[in-house]
Amino acid sequence: MRLQASGCYYHSGRAAVAICAKCGVGVCRECAVKDEYGTILCYQCGNEKLREEHREHRKRLKEAGGRFRKGTEFIIPGIIGALIVIVVCVLNYTGIGHGGIKNSLGVGIEGMIGIFYILFSIPFCYIALNDLLVPKYDTMFERIRKWVEKIAISLAIGCIVFTFFWIRFLIGKLNFLKNKE
Q1: 93-117: pLDDT as tens digits
Q2: pTM for this one?
Q3: Which of 57, 157, 162, 181 sits in a 20 to 30 Å window from 21, CA-based?
Q4: What is the pLDDT of residues 128-166, one digit of tens each?
Q5: Can you give the residue range of the structural domain that contains 157?
Q6: DSSP the chain
């Protein structure tokens, strides 16, 4: 196949290295993205395809009743949350920093349980944010920035999100048992 576009549609003065399979414009290396099948698209068509896939994913989630409806969906985020808590416990036990987390935060055992609950809930909120926010092709810096933002949001509201999912799961199980009788 011979390249017909001489320059990048988005960057004048740059040579085109590929043609978008959807819209047919020439794209440079920065603007070209590959989908899961290896098809080369311009970043606008790639982002449009990601938005459509995300809409379909959200529709499937809605039809299934939402995220965290089955007990098995709690396993992987629960393991990740437990690992986060274990790392913090080890760091606290070894006294990394100025006298460990307990002394630097000035909290007792109740405060540590609260901190562990917040840390345990991070993966659950992170998954919910991934389901909520539309993905797009970004630079590596943008990906890292968005990852840090999701972690910060998960720290701030993760315990609320996890509590909501857990209560909804328990109510669903209780209703199932009630209807079974």
Answers
A1: 666 655 555 555 566 777 778 888 8
A2: 0.68
A3: 57
A4: 998 888 888 877 888 899 999 999 999 999 989 999 988
A5: 67-180
A6: ------B-SSSTTSBP-EE-TTT--EE-TTTEEE-TT--EEEHHHHHHHHHHHHHHHHHHHHHTTSSS-SGGGGHHHHHHHHHHHHHHHHHHHHTTTTSHHHHHHT--HHHHHHHHHHHHHHHHHHHHHHHHSPP----HHHHHHHHHHHHHHHHHHHHHHHHHHHHHHHHHHHHHHHHH-
